[in-house]
Amino acid sequence: MRLYSVSLLMLSLFALPSRGADEAKKYPFVFVDAGEEAGLFPALEAIKGHGAAWGDIDGDGWLDLYVATFAAEGSKLNMLMRSNKGKFTLDDQKALNIATRGTGVVFADLDNDGDLDLYIGSMPKAPGKDGITSRGCSMFRNDGGGKFTDISQDNGACPAAFGGRSVALFDFDGDGLLDLLVGEEPIVKYNGSTTKSSRIFRNKGNLQFEDVSRAVGLPENIPWLGVSAADVNNDGWPDFFLCAPGANRLFLNDRKGKFVEAEGSAAIFDWKGLGAAGGDNMVCGVCFADVNRDGLLDVVLGQHFSRPWNEPVANRLYLNRGIKNGVPTFEDVTTKVGLSPLYMKAPHVEIQDFDNDGWPDISASLVKFHEGKPYPVIFRHQGIKDGLPQFRDDAWGVNDFPNAEDKAIKSTGTFFDTMIKSKKVIYSAPGPVGDYNNDGKLDIFMANWWMESRSLLLKNTTPGGNWLKVQVEGAKDVNRMGVGSRVKIYTAGKIGDPAGLIGCRDIAVGFGYASGQSAVTHFGLGKEETVDVEVILPHGKGTIAKKGVKANEALTIKQ
What we know:
Layout: H1 2-15, H2 19-26, E1 31-33, E2 49-55, E3 64-69, E4 79-84, E5 87-91, E6 102-108, E7 117-122, E8 138-142, E9 148-150, E10 164-170, E11 179-184, E12 199-205, E13 208-211, E14 226-230, E15 239-243, E16 249-253, E17 259-261, H3 265-268, E18 282-289, E19 298-304, E20 316-324, E21 327-332, H4 334-337, E22 349-352, E23 361-370, E24 373-385, E25 388-392, H5 404-408, H6 412-422, E26 425-427, E27 433-434, E28 443-446, E29 456-460, E30 466-473, E31 486-491, E32 501-506, E33 515-516, E34 521-526, E35 530-536, E36 543-550, E37 553-558
Parallel strand pairs: 2-33, 30-37
Antiparallel strand pairs: 1-29, 2-3, 3-4, 4-5, 6-7, 7-8, 8-9, 10-11, 11-12, 12-13, 14-15, 15-16, 16-17, 18-19, 19-20, 20-21, 22-23, 23-24, 23-26, 24-25, 27-28, 28-29, 30-34, 31-32, 31-35, 35-36
């Protein structure tokens, strides 16, 4: 009788779902690992992926993908994956199949001719035991139809000895040409340079640039890993944020072609432990967007700390609390809004609406797995409570990482070996978001650093609300991509009314970490079927309004 009872007990235990299964059911998003079906493999197997960018290089309406690697220890070289209606094939252009230590990658119309050129931020390196010479920063001209020519030599934006990291686009001086904001790796010599001074390359036209960093107010010896440009004080001019091991800093545009560090920014964005662990405690990612519908851009930062599986670290959210005398005030609300500490590095961050409910979520380049299925770590927006946005992550509970054995590992190398073998969690440097299959849902690409583990193309199949994509086509005195334009979405009939604001963000390319996005703003609309759209062109060049815009379409607004 006793054995019979024990047997029944054992059977009942086996019949119970695991805690991970219960948590997986709570996860509000649905993502599918679509790399194989989309054609990314075998091309993207066995790479040390460290940079990635989306962009429509041939104007066919579908996003293509460029992946940058660290060309060493057997990794493949950089690759362009061209899309044919959401199915990718490897483009064999030799000009683009280069060896780099690439981080920043952006597709950008740098000559305003209507097609996307390519810029890569990279750290040069002389040949090692493997005989591979890694190039530094590179630029490629799009000659039409996605055919590229290497124009890196003597163009002014690709110094021979410069350890390029992340890249952002902005037109800082309002001349209608896109300039380049490029971070430099902080460790001298490792970065292939004798300096650690980040740069602003001013576009002079005809794909020629000049280094104006010191002349416009960017001090010497300020390295950074992550960069982002946006108008944080609502004056119509792009400001920029720098993430580095030493300090995070915000610089404001004086509307006269120069920048001034925002008063107290280093203290406001200070981070305990930053720069410790031999410099491995870093903040890498930065992204701007309005998370609480007040028309002010907030900022989220992504951590890359040394051993978060022992001492978890949260990605941080700072709310823009208003502007006084042209200077924004930010408040760290990380704990108050529910951004819980993470037990893994999470360097790339984006603020995007992944379920199209009308509220932007916060993603990190971090994925957990349950029964082989991916659960990207996304803090879902829960709405506003007591004046604060609220967020919740349901991915972390889908498995038991980190368990006691994980936390007991002392060696970082041993830890990552265990991580790859256990297949419970993975993170990546880049994680650019884009709608690669044009279904109105935002997907994620994560280029994997570990050659024995595949990169992830996470196709979003989450049931959700309506949506709208908006891009701006500039002319004359506004850059062709519309970068720097402020896009606001209102409920129909309430354009200009703060109470009717659904979404607000700048058109931006190059934010988060090691990632390039397309110059398209995506808004979830929830149940709204018709909305009003307001575009504020940069540098005071005017406002464009579109009323009664129907949901679930891609809208191009021409200047």
